[in-house]
Structure formats: C-alpha cells, structure tokens
Design goal:
This protein is mostly helical. The protein has a domain of 47 residues. Helix content is 59%, strand content 0%. The protein has 5 helices and no strands. The longest helix has 13 residues. It starts with a helix and ends with a helix. The model has no long low-confidence stretch (mean pLDDT 84).
C-alpha cells in the first residue's frame, strides 16, 4: 500500500497538482509530511523557474516625444 500511495503522489506532483491537495488526498495532517514529494523532480522545478523568467521588455517611447500629449498638457 505504501508504494502505491508514494507512486500516486509522485505522479500527482508531476501532473502539477498542488501539494496541499496531495496532502489532503494522502490524509496527512501536516504539510511537512507531504513536502517530501515536492523534492522529487528537477524537471518540474526547472519548469516552475522558467515560468518566472522575465521577458525582454521593449523600450518605451518617452512621454515628452508624444506631440498630442504635450499639446494637451500645454492647454491646461
């Protein structure tokens, strides 16, 4: 039974299921008992880090170069 529970929990982690949901499914009282499954897969960790990467930003045009905006501001 333990191997089946462990394997299922590992597959749930790999499928992206929230660790707290896995904790409840396994019947663990403490999340720290379930956290062992969060340490199992480096690919999953790499995917999570990739989601956090900041993309390259485009240079923004200076508001001072916007003729319509400058005309509006001067009219105030």
């Amino acid at each position: 039974p333990h191997v089946i529970r462990h394997t299922t929990a590992c597959h749930l982690v790999l499928a992206g299921v929230d660790i707290n949901t896995i904790r409840a499914w396994l019947g663990h009282v403490s999340i720290s008992t379930t956290n062992i499954y969060a340490e199992i897969d480096l690919t999953l960790k790499a995917n999570a880090v990739a989601l956090c990467e900041v993309g390259r930003s485009r240079p923004t045009r200076s508001w001072k170069e916007d003729k319509d905006l400058m005309a509006f501001l001067k009219s105030l």
